[in-house]
Every structure is written in C-alpha cells, then in structure tokens.
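Q: Given only this backbone (290 positions), what sequence would you predict?
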C-alpha cells in the first residue's frame, strides 16, 4: 500500500481537475446519447459500433504510453467507449425482445442490465482472488474475509490503461445494477428503505473518497481514483432525479447547466493534457489503485 500523503494545494488542484473531468465526461456522453435518440436515432447502432472500435483501439494504444498518467487518461476513454457499446447492445436487445419502459421511467436497456447482476458477481468474485488486483475496496474485503492464501502481487505495473478501462466498466456496471434493483417495485422500489439507504451510503462514501482522492497529487492516480468518487455521487444524482427532486440537465437538455459542465470539461482536459506533456520522472508511483 502507498504511504499516506499530506493534503496540499497541489493535491487539491489535481483532485478538482480530475473530478471535473470524469464527471463532465459522463455528463457529455449522456447528452450525446439523448441528442442522437431525439434527432437521429437511425444512426445509434452505427454510433455504438464506432464506440466499441474506438474503445478497443484506444486501450490497445496504451501499450505505447510510457507514463501512468497517459495510460490512465486513454484508459478512461477506452472504458467509456466499450461501456457505451454495451449499453447500446442492451438497447438493441430490448428492442428485439419488445422490452418496454416501466411506469417509473426505467429504460429497457437498464431493465435488462439489472438481470446481469449474477454476471457481475462472477467477475467480482474472480477479482477478489486475483492476486494482481489492487483496488482498495477489494483489499479491504481480502483483509476482513481472509481470502488470500499467499502474498498479494506487488511491484511495478507496466500499463494502467487496460486496468483503468476495466475499472471504469466495473464501477459503472455496479452503480447501474444497484440502482435498477433499488428502483424495481417487485424487489424494493424508489421509495423503499433500500433506496434511501443506498442514497445515504453513497452520499457518505463520496466524502470519504474525496478525502482519499486528496492524498494524490499526480493525474494518473487522481484520474483512477476519481472514477469511483464520481460514480457514488452519480448514484445520488440519479436517485434525486427518480424522486423528482431535480431534473438531470443531460436528459432534459438544459443547455445553461450543460454549457457550464462542458466548459469545465474543456478546461480540465486542457489542464490534464498540459500537465501530462511535461517531462517528469517518477510518474508510476501509486501501486494500490486498480
């Protein structure tokens, strides 16, 4: 595990930029889906294939990136591309099978995704026993449940790109499955104790993850750790929207709010790329993050 670091102005800057970039990326990706569905739905499956191809190529490209910052940056984009291809494949499957919207507003693809929870658990079980997996949450479960027979693999990671893409996919998958189970009236329902508990836990964990995120002052580690931080906050945003307490600007096309998000994303992208282009040594230093 990496040594505990002091929170500094520099680490606050890196945290703010990384968080803004990951959040803005997710918001912009959502509004692109909405705009395609509203104005030109005929191209959505071609768009899905494009996302899949670009996602695979982006992850493959990371084999030539020498620093973990670039590896993580492109890994996030590769993971996002593959995730959107997965969502569109479920959308296509829902259309073919005649899956409809539910009265509480759940989209057909997410209704199908809900029943992928066992597939998620199988992959997660493998990660629990995979010696080279370095997710902090998995480390916690390993210690508490005494899962490992031997020493967990340590040492240099040569490419964070595929790891970051896989992290993005797994964490996003977990968030959607939890939300869909919470919304299902035959299991819990939007007004159930489980949904309120999920909101409270996500809200609490978000602040803990922000505190942890503030301990890193390199974009490689910050980008990787910002993924779960944004996702747990996104759970609360989705639940508040489900309760009718706010309207998601990327769904209802609120261009005033989206303009602020897009501007924040553009500025954070510039700052990340500017920093990563500087020639620095010792970039691959955080060995406890997936």
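A: Predicted residues:
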């Amino acid at each position: 595990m990496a040594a505990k670091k002091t929170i500094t102005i520099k680490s606050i800057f890196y945290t703010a930029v990384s968080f803004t970039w990951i959040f803005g990326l997710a918001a912009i990706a959502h509004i692109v889906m909405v705009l395609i569905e509203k104005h030109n739905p005929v191209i959505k499956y071609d768009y899905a294939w494009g996302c899949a191809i670009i996602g695979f190529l982006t992850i493959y490209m990371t084999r030539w990136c020498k620093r973990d910052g670039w590896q993580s940056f492109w890994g996030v984009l590769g993971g996002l591309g593959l995730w959107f291809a997965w969502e569109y494949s479920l959308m296509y499957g829902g259309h073919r099978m005649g899956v409809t919207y539910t009265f509480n507003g759940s989209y057909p693809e997410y209704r199908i995704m809900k029943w992928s929870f066992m597939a998620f658990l199988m992959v997660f079980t493998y990660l629990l026993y995979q010696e080279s997996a370095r997710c902090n949450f998995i480390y916690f479960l390993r210690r508490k449940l005494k899962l490992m027979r031997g020493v967990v693999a340590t040492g240099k990671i040569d490419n964070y790109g595929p790891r970051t893409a896989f992290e993005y996919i797994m964490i996003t998958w977990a968030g959607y499955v939890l939300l869909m189970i919470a919304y299902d009236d035959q299991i819990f329902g939007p007004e159930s104790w489980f949904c309120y508990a999920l909101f409270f836990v996500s809200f609490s964990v978000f602040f803990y993850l922000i505190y942890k995120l503030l301990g890193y002052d390199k974009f490689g580690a910050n980008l990787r750790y910002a993924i779960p931080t944004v996702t747990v906050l996104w759970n609360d945003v989705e639940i508040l929207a489900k309760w009718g307490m706010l309207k998601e600007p990327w769904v209802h096309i609120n261009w005033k709010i989206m303009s602020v998000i897009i501007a924040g994303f553009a500025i954070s992208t510039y700052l990340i790329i500017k920093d990563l282009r500087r020639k620095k040594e010792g970039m691959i230093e955080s060995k406890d993050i997936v």
